[in-house]
Amino acid sequence: MTNSPTFEQQLALNQYWRQIGGTVMLPGTNRAADRFARASFYVNAIPKTPDPVQTIASAFSVIRNVSVPFGITTPDQPNISSTRWRTVADHKRKLYFFESVLTPNVFWVDLARLDFSAKSGKVMKLDLGPNQTHVYAGMANAQFKEVAPFRFLGI
C-alpha cells in the first residue's frame, strides 16, 4: 500500500516497468511509485508454495524491500516517511504477523484464539510500550490485557 500517486497512475507506471523487466532494472527511490513498481515485480517473482512458513517469509521479504528506512524524513515530500510497521495476514490460518522497525522480532496474533464475541464484552489491548518498543516474539495472544474501550472525540 502506498500513499500516492493514484492507483490508476500506479498501474500505468507498473506497465512501463513490466516492459523493461525487473531483472534488468528497477526504480530505487523512496517515492511511492518506485516502491510500488518494485513490490509488483517481486511479488510476482517470489516462489509460489503451499508452505505457509515460506509464504510468510517471502511476503515479508518483499515488504522489507519496499519499506522506507527508519529515520528518513523528506520535509518537502510529506508523503514519504519511515515505515514503522510491517504486517502480513495469513487468511487461511487466521494469523496476523507484525514486525516493528524498533524491535528485533516478528510476532503474531492467532485470531482464532481471541474472543470477539459480544457476550464476553471484553476489549483487549497489546501494550506496545513507550515509543512502541516492547519486544514480543512468537505468538503474542497471552500478552493481551483487558482495557476500557477506546473513546472517540466528540462521542
From TrEMBL:
A single MF term (Gene Ontology): hydrolase activity
Pfam families the record matches: CBAH
Domain Choloylglycine hydrolase/NAAA C-terminal: 11-117
Keyword list, A-Z: Hydrolase
Family assignment from sequence similarity: Belongs to the peptidase C59 family.
Name of this protein: Choloylglycine hydrolase/NAAA C-terminal domain-containing protein
Native source species: bioreactor metagenome
